[in-house]
Design goal:
Beta-Lactamase, 3-stranded antiparallel β-sheet, 2 domains, alpha+beta, Arc Repressor Mutant, subunit A, 252 residues, 6-stranded antiparallel β-sheet, 9 strands
Length: 252
């Protein structure tokens, strides 16, 4: 019964489309007002709803949005992301991919290649993040919330750095420069001379759990080009974040 009441309150707040008061919730549920206060307080303590302290009104909380975001299927995310990625691949003339944080690691969930049969490109594949796309690991870690950041550092970045100790190439030594720039790039991430550039995709006020990236040969992705693409990716990531947010939150 207690759980049913909590779910009922969440549903009422979700479908209201606006901040809603305890009085409104009480009228909709027919529960005693002290009970509504107690249940709302419990939901707010767990960040499932957020309150406006001045007016005591409630909206769906960041934690519930995060649950919906992390649980959304790749199919639905790809559906809204694919057109943006395809347009970007044509614009840059390089492979563009979408990656997401999952189970302590990072997977590539969609790839678009340039529509130019006369120009070679690098295909990173789908699944666990390969070394030639490690810029995505750095941007997601730099802009992720603390628990996610530590998992990415432990499971993805630190093993990568250890493997690169005696190899050519460079990776960021810390995440502060990535936060300042808003994107990351790694040169010679593999022996084949690939450069990856990536920008984080933040959903609302949540940290980044997705990233958009570009990967291509070093001889094409020189410093000036890399900086230009990085700044463009920041703009595109904002557009992508809005699309993914609608894909995930509108159904809540």
């Amino acid at each position: 019964m207690h759980l049913e009441r909590l779910i009922a309150i969440l549903e009422i707040i979700a479908v209201s489309g606006r901040a809603i008061s305890v009085s409104d919730i009480q009228k909709a549920t027919a529960l005693p007002k002290p009970t509504v206060y107690r249940l709302c307080s419990a939901l707010a303590d767990h960040q499932l709803i957020d309150s406006d302290e001045e007016n005591s009104r409630y909206v769906i909380g960041e934690r519930l949005i995060r649950i919906a975001l992390l649980g959304k299927s790749d199919v639905d995310v790809r559906r809204v992301a694919a057109p943006i990625l395809a347009k970007s691949a044509i614009k840059f003339g390089e492979t563009v991919y979408l990656s997401r944080y999952r189970n302590g690691g990072i997977d590539i969930i969609h790839v678009e290649t340039p529509n130019n049969p006369t120009r070679g490109h690098i295909y990173p594949g789908l699944g666990p993040l390969p070394q030639n796309c490690m810029a995505s690991a750095f941007v997601i870690a730099a802009f992720a919330e603390d628990p996610f950041r530590q998992e990415i550092l432990n499971n993805v970045i630190n093993p990568y750095k250890a493997a690169r100790n005696n190899a050519k190439g460079a990776a960021p030594l810390d995440l502060d420069p990535v936060r300042v720039a808003g994107f990351a790039h790694i040169e010679q991430a593999t022996e084949f001379g690939a450069t990856s550039i990536s920008a984080p995709i933040s959903i609302g006020t949540l940290g980044a759990t997705f990233a958009i990236g570009v990967v291509g040969p070093n001889d094409r992705l020189l410093e000036d080009t890399t900086q230009k693409i990085g700044k463009e990716l920041i703009k595109i990531s904002s557009q992508m974040g809005g699309a993914i947010q609608l894909c995930n939150v509108s159904e809540v």
